[in-house]
Structures
1.
Amino acid sequence: MKFVLASNNQGKLLEMREILSEIGVEVISQREAGISVEPEENGTTFEENSIIKARASCEASGLPAIADDSGLVVCALGGEPGVYSARYGGDGLSDTDRYTLLLKNMEGKTDRSAKFVSCISCVFPNGDVITAEGECPGEILHAPKGDGGFGYDPVFFVKSLGKSMGEMSHEEKNSVSHRGNAIRAFYPKLRDYLKKL
Ligand code: IMP
């Protein structure tokens, strides 16, 4: 069965394709499916937003669609930027601008703990929904390290690997990341669903 990956974020597309192919799931991009949808992400949770995105792609393509909604939750900032991670600081900012703003807002904070969260949902043409969540705990650095990955990767330190996400290889990041963990939780649910068809 073919699935549409409901994301226009190149960094995420690359990662999700890589991890999903490991579990034998064939995915095509929205462009390959001949659609271009960007629904308003007006949910208040990662789960709500991932379902909004998957549903829009499914309705436009007629194919089952998989979407991820993710973000960075910082304890000392009361959970910000959270579901607003992609829009933190407003429109027109680069990834570097956004993590620089985050570092500024973290000045003087002793609690640097944070987590990345990812919720993955699949919406089927018959309306069925499968959803799974994954997290990756870490700490906000005082200055960026490494230039790999995307988004907040250079300022997010993962203790188990002793590196920032910006310093990790793709394989390293997939092995510990929120998205990797969400996909690993999602896969058995998808497999069980497909078995019942
Ligand atoms: P979404 O496309 O609405 O899910 O936005 C997620 C946003 O959270 C991204 O634009 C990034 O700013 C941030 N984010 C999510 N996952 C990651 C990651 O793996 N590394 C760095 N930043 C991430």
2.
Amino acid sequence: MSDQYAVIGNPVKHSLSPQIHAAFASETGEEIVYERLLGDLEDFNGDVRDFFSRGGCGLNVTVPFKQKAWELVDELSERARLAGAVNTITRLDSGKLRGDNTDGVGLVRDLTENHGFDFTDASLLLLGAGGASRGVILPLLQQQPASLMIANRTAGKAVSLADLFSGQGDVCGCGLHEIAERQFNLIINATAAGLEGDVPAIPDTCLASGGWVYDMMYGKQPTAFVRWGEARNAGKSLDGIGMLVEQAAESFFIWRGVRPHTAAVIQQLVS
Ligand code: ATR
């Protein structure tokens, strides 16, 4: 029988992960089965235990279970520990469950390898201080940018988040209204504002000339934040579809030890 994998979320029916992993499997010749699991909001742990007791090898975890997965696993990678969230669970030979978080590395890889962003001397602005933001901070700091500012509608949350990562690089937190005098080479939107077609309230002037804009969300149409960047002549104005595929590729690599090519899969999803 092929090795079993799945993505667990609620809702989960729109997840693109099965399509992405099927493409990786066919490209690499790995024999896997990858399904969708609708997680029980009241008994996520039971669903995970069931999946692994049936012989499952690995799970991707999506909204709203990433923090629950972090609490459930037996051990954590360093990046997952700091992210406070797990999006990849692997059953080890010992039977223990190991949690990892591939979101941040997915973002970084999309920026650097797919689009050629250079973090050297770059000043970064990360909008939002929820789970999505926290998950990408360590991998961003590991690129050694000049600085990382986290700005959030509720300033205190950004300040706390920055404190948590203060040992990892030049990072500070503030409210959205406090960024008026600064300019950034890369602005990443990790807020939920786009769910209502909204853009965080930041000044036009904070995008440096030629600076890039990256929305961690994606959709069939350009997101509100991608349009914000385009309207301000951003060097590039990107959505999160590449990050989605790259985080999946990193999970696939953890599970199978083979790194799939991503370009054709990204192309397939955007066309
Ligand atoms: P996630 O896990 O997706 O990050 P979350 O933890 O609920 O979700 O966090 C949502 C983030 O989007 C928060 O940073 C939130 O700001 P607050 O902390 O002030 O609530 C931010 N957010 C949501 N709607 C927003 C809007 N319209 N403008 C700016 N920020 C918004």
3.
Amino acid sequence: MADDTKVAVLGTGIMGSAMARNLLSAGMDVRAWNRSREKAEPLVKDGAEVADNPADAARGADFILTMLADADAVEEAVGGDVLSELAEDGVWLQMSTVGEGGTERLHRLAADRGVAYVDAPVLGTKQPAEQGQLIVLASGPEEVRERSEQVFDALGSKTVWLDEAGEGSRLKLVVNNWIVGLLGVLAETVAFAEATGVDPAKFLETIEGGPLGLPYAQLKGSMMIEENFPTSFSANLARKDAALVLDSARDHDLHLRIAEAVTTLFDEAIQAGHGEDDMAAVYRAASPDRG
Ligand code: NAP
């Protein structure tokens, strides 16, 4: 079955290119498109075709998989008549993080074109994407779930099915609020340790292995201590995610003060030139040097 499956992958950034490689390894045909074509070209040696535009990528495909920065980028790529290029009964797997409003907008676009829409944002970053270990938070019509799972199985270790399209994105926002809060307090804790003459490595060592010692704290905390921020998830996109959380909270009459404060830290780090660095560079805004 996978041998005949054709997937149009729109967006071959950090996540999309790793995902495209895993689809190819699972025996699927991949036609990839990326706004900056040079980021899609390396996939050719893995067996992908590179398309000049989204419509060419989508032509005759069973699935269109979008993994772009935000809802505007997805709408720009998939708008026009791109969805009509899919094979009969083709399915749109929308895996970018676009929030509640973005999901509604894109779902409407799919409905206008009569294409089944599966809302399927992911948990996991660059390395899990490369290893096919993402967690897919999927929601959408019952009748396309089994078919969609062959794609998700190639990308992740687990697919959590929720009900109607949009529920996956809402769960993703909840997890993102947790991540944003953790990252902000981690940055300030490392800065606080340094300010008080405590070796921040001792802090990480002390919590390691116990209930407070999240592997995430070890990973991002070490980056902060070493001030080395190779990008798994950019500060720009983390700031976008924090804003999506705040938008959604506002729409539901909830004031999230911690997410708001961390968003300010992101803004400062981005203004200082760290937008394309890993999100752990938020530490630069929290540390006394404010580098
Ligand atoms: P990335 O490496 O920065 O790639 C972003 C992609 O979006 C690139 O293909 C970029 O094209 C494209 N893009 C941006 N603006 C565009 C526009 N206006 N029109 C067309 N294309 C546009 O990002 P990523 O880390 O792969 O993230 C992709 C999505 O996955 C995001 O929604 C992100 O929030 C989500 N996500 C990321 C992670 C992670 O850890 N990295 C984890 C979970 C979810 P160019 O190459 O031409 O700039």
